[in-house]
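Model it.
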Amino acid sequence: MKRNFSLILVVLAAALGGCAAHKPANDPALIGSWKGLRAENGKCQFLSWNNDFKPDGSFTVTFFRDAQQTQPIQTEHGRWSAANGKNELRTDGVRLPDVYTYQFIDADTVHYVNVASDPSGDCQEDYEFTERRIRG
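Modeled.
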């Protein structure tokens, strides 16, 4: 009986290890710094922002009142996960994630469509925006 139990544990460990290995990694094309803005005549209040997606799955985003980014509003931190055209942002202190679909226009430009937001977010409308990579 003890031998069978050990064999079951080995098989279970191997199976669980295999599952963990198949979890999709964050899309490496999104790692880095990006600048975005909401349209001034869009469904939601105008904002511009800079965000930084780190390889360890953390992110930082700073929001601004103006397109020139001279009037900061706040900075948020959290965790991100992105694969298969879906990006999920879990901001520290916010109950539900923001979820976006995304598609690359080119290597330095990505288009997002918001598909889910926490009810406490500043905009509950589905909206879309484009971000551009910050170089240098």
